[in-house]
Amino acid sequence: MPSPIPVTRLLPKDLYPSLELGTFSSPLTKPLDGSSLQVPVQRFHSRAASRLWSSVIHWQELRSVQPVGSGGFGAVYKAEYFGEIVALKRVKKCTKNQLASRQSFWAELNAAHLRHTNIVRVIAATTGVPKSVGDESSIGTILMEFVHGRNLQQIIYDTAEPLGADRWLRYGTDVVRGLRFLHAHDVVHLDIKPANVLVSSEDVCKIADFGCSLKLDRGCEVNTIGPHLSHVGGTYTHRPPEMLKGEGVSPKADIFSFGITLWQLATREQPYTGDRQHVLYAVVAHNLRPSVEKHAVFRSEIGRQCRTLLNRCWSADRRCRPSAQELTSQLEQLQQLGTGERD
Question: Which residue among 120, 145, 170 closes a domain?
Fold first, then answer.
């Protein structure tokens, strides 16, 4: 299946001279000899090595592969690669929906060419696997930076450690900084939630898991979701009403999901209870949103301003939601206000 991502959108033209050809690579171009797939791949000594991902995995350099976890579309391992600790993700074929699993693999690469502190870095990706390490159920393999820490889901619900306003505001600011960068490059994540935000050992949030993401057409504020894009969806508790209704996708979908995530950080509760179908219907038909009235955290000055911000983030009208740029400024101001209150 050809990649929906043209190679020219992944590799800047001015860097092509520093590239060489390798095998077992992502099918971004037609095979050169009809027997194997080959595309440009960076040299490790290249000036651009810190900016580009590679379309070749040097399997002989993988060491100490250990399972970390598994999910709907694959499994994640911890490994050593050229002396660096990495995360290895194998995307598996979904027997019920093979198209969705293939699209999920390619979607993981929508942000592969981007580098930002608050986004998990892709190191290499390939669809080819040597027989010695092959897995017939695998569509492709992705190597990413290994984030030594936990995710926000674990911090919110699985620990008793304090999560004061200064901390959850800082986490929220990290996430919107990552979103601001993604949206500036026409990438929407479409599955922002605590489980998809990793927290490093330095306590920095990094957006992960781009399996539901889309690359938007440049200059187009809203993209239509075609029936061929079966991987688009995200988690129902964080999905905006326009996507529940099957309407177009825009960066404002991520803003809605972020609003739910920020509420979870502030309250440490689940956003909804009850039957899934009831929640889906109520979000669209009755403007159901997580409660901000009963929580003491929203009664302070910072809390009241945050409540106003949340109401804008999860507005039914996406045009009323703030941009990631605006959110970043407002959360940074709230952080400063919190510092002033402590002083």
Answer: 145
User: Could you say which of 158, 174, 191, 317 is catalytic?
Assistant: 191
Q: How many domains does the chain have?
A: 2
Element (H or E) spanning 77, and its range?
strand 74-81
Quick one: 122 and 184 in the same domain? no
* pLDDT at residue 103, rounded to an integer: 84
CA-nearest of 133, 108, 120 to 57 is 133
Query: Could you give the CA distance from residue 305 to residue 149 in angstroms, rounded to a whole number?
Result: 30
Write down the residue that tokens 């909804």 correspond to: 272
Strand intervals (E) in 213-328: 214-215
Helix 165-184 to helix 252-267 angle (10° resolution) is 170
186 is catalytic: no
DSSP secondary structure, 127-176, as one string: S---TTT--TTEEEEEEEE---SEEHHHHHHS--S---HHHHHHHHHHHH
Q: Tell me whether residue 107 is in a domain.
A: yes
Cα torsion 318, 322, 328, 332: sign: negative
Tell me the backbone φ, ψ of residue 144, rounded to 5 degrees: -135, 165
User: Residue written as tokens 């404002």?
Assistant: 252
| 115, 145, 175 - which closes a domain | 145
Give the contacts of 126 (CB within 8 A, at least 6 positions apart): 24, 25, 26, 55, 56, 57, 140, 141
**Residue pLDDT, tens place only, 64-111:** 889 888 766 678 999 999 989 999 998 877 656 677 778 888 899 999
Are 107 and 91 in contact by the 8 Å Cβ rule? The answer is no
Question: Could you tell me if 56 and 140 are in contact, meaning their C-beta atoms sit under 8 angstroms apart?
Answer: no
User: Scanning the structure block, which residue is given the tokens 């057409």?
Assistant: 217
Nearest to 27 by CA among 167, 134, 125, 152: 125
User: Domain span at residue 338?
Assistant: 150-342
C-alpha closest to that of 136 among 93, 98, 178, 195: 93
The CA distance from 304 to 297, in Å, is: 9
Give the global pTM. 0.82
In a domain, 164, yes or no: yes
